[in-house]
Design a protein that fits this description.
Layout lengths: L1 H10 L4 H12 L3 H9 L6 H25 L6 H9 L1 H33 L1 H5 L1 H21 L4 H22 L19 H12 L19 H30 L2 H5 L4 H46 L17 H18 L3 H25 L1 H8 L7 H24 L2 H12 L2 H9 L6 H9 L10
Helix pairs in contact: 2-11, 3-15, 4-10, 4-11, 4-17, 5-6, 5-15, 5-16, 6-8, 6-13, 6-14, 6-15, 8-13, 8-14, 9-11, 9-13, 10-17, 13-14, 15-17, 15-18
């Protein structure tokens, strides 16, 4: 009895502070360092996009916190949708989630090149060199993840500190350099206010992707039913405050026209305020941050398809491990696709390529988000929880509809071209699902046993 009594205390080691730090560290990555340039085309009205995106992220955070309590098997969004809607829906969500990861990896690599170019002008001046740096960065970290370097956790800790210092400095100290005339006109996009805010929100959602992977297994958390939702909400609120404050300062310090053409917008802001030294330090912090984010995304591009393959949702070959015990096949395929995406879009310039790729990543994430929003209600229905209180059902339904409507609205803001391309990528996975099912002789109990044996990709780290 003594050992049993001690086990829960050992597992429940994560309190509110630790969980909140995990949420913040996973969300703040490359987005905020390049997004001010993308949002400058809309003008100060883009701040409303940040506010609405933050509100939507809070709703989604609550939903994922609740789902983490209902579904304990690994797989994240696709596990929730598989339990809630069935096997085919689970595959489509796993497919879309995987697309979001490798497209996200491509976007982070582009952001890394933008700030490295600020430090090394030769990179910024040569498109060929910029493309080479982006590809080398991806494959360098792919090889590190294949080898399973033990120091990866230390790298993530250092880069988390490196990303917060310049952001806090700009957000707080930069308020003294803000000039009111830079906030007029309020909408510079040439679109209606509604269209401008929707488009800005679609871009800003990129900065919140990954909030679902920060939900911690309930067995590791002190009082998980309260701690996980609270930590996620607090983490999103703190992150939102950093994002909005930094964007406010960026718009207030540098005119929108100048900000929109910069491949290193926050370094430009710091240079305007503090001179060349300030710009250099912020650019250095951005390189450190994006490198760490790229490392985290690279990790997930291997672990998520590996977990899906172990569940017999993805091809079995993606579940093979290297001699180092890492999912080498999944890592190589994912980052080969990320490299192709970078090459295809690099002619648009750094900012243009970044915008195109993050919208594709956001679109691929929004379908999982939309379905997960209503998954809790579907899970209760499929488990025949007829005894649930009507008021509780109503609360779940309202929360789910808020998350669903927000996801659809953000999808609308992504633009028709992005939605069309993202739709084609997701539909392209259906023949793979048919092929996988046709080769399975024991899809039922065997698949369940594999699910229990699969590692939890959400517990392996993130950006």
């Amino acid at each position: 009895m003594g050992a049993k009594d001690n086990a829960p205390a050992k597992q429940a080691a994560l309190g509110l502070g630790a969980c909140t730090a995990l949420v913040i560290g996973n969300m703040i990555g490359s987005g905020i360092f390049l997004l001010p340039a993308s949002l400058a085309a809309f003008g100060p009205i883009s701040l409303l996009g940040w506010i609405l995106t933050s509100a939507g992220a809070i709703v989604l955070a609550i939903i994922f916190g609740r789902l983490a309590q209902l579904v304990t098997k690994p797989g994240g969004p696709y596990a929730y949708c598989e339990v809630g809607y069935g096997e085919f829906a689970g595959f489509i969500i796993a497919w879309g989630y995987w697309i979001a990861l490798w497209t996200g990896n491509a976007a982070v690599a582009v952001a890394l090149v933008g700030y490295l170019g600020f430090l090394v002008p030769a990179v910024d001046e040569s498109q060929t060199l910029s493309l080479a740096v982006a590809l080398i960065s991806i494959w360098f970290l792919t090889l590190i993840n294949i080898r399973g370097v033990a120091e990866a956790g230390l790298v993530q800790t250092i880069t988390t500190i490196g990303k917060l210092v310049p952001l806090v400095a700009i957000g707080l100290l930069g308020l003294f350099w803000v000039e009111s005339q830079n906030f007029a006109p309020f909408n510079t996009s040439g679109q209606s206010s509604m269209a401008a805010v929707s488009a800005a929100a679609a871009l800003t959602l990129w900065a919140y992707l990954g909030l679902e992977s920060a939900t911690v297994p309930s067995g590791d958390v002190v009082d998980p039913k309260k701690t996980i939702p609270r930590a996620t909400i607090i983490g999103v609120l703190i992150t939102a405050a950093v994002y909005i404050l930094v964007t406010f300062v960026a718009i207030g310090v540098v005119p929108s026209g100048e900000l929109a053409t910069s491949s290193a917008p926050l370094a430009l802001v710091a240079t305007t305020m503090w001179g060349a030294v300030g710009g250099f330090l912020v650019a250095l912090g951005a390189v450190v941050s994006t490198f760490g984010t790229l490392n985290g995304f690279t990790l997930l591009t291997g672990q998520v398809p590996y977990g899906a393959a172990m569940d017999r949702v993805f091809p079995r070959a993606l579940g093979n491990l290297s001699n180092y015990g890492t999912p080498a096949n999944a890592l190589i395929l994912s980052n080969l696709l990320a490299s192709v995406l970078i090459v295809m879009n690099f002619s648009k310039g750094l900012v243009g390529a970044f915008e195109t790729i993050i919208l594709l990543a956001v679109m691929s994430s929004l379908l999982p988000y939309a379905l997960c929003a209503l998954a809790e209600l579907m899970i209760l229905v499929r488990r025949n929880k007829s005894a649930a209180q009507p008021l509780g059902r109503l609360k779940i339904a309202i929360l789910g509809m808020l998350g669903f409507v927000y996801s659809i609205w953000a999808l609308y803001g992504s633009g028709s071209e992005t939605v069309f391309l993202g739709f084609l990528l997701i539909i392209a996975g259906i023949p793979i699902h048919v092929w996988i099912k046709s080769t399975q002789k024991q899809p039922g109990p065997a698949a369940d046993r594999m699910i229990q044996a699969a590692p939890d990709p959400q517990n392996r780290g993130n950006s």
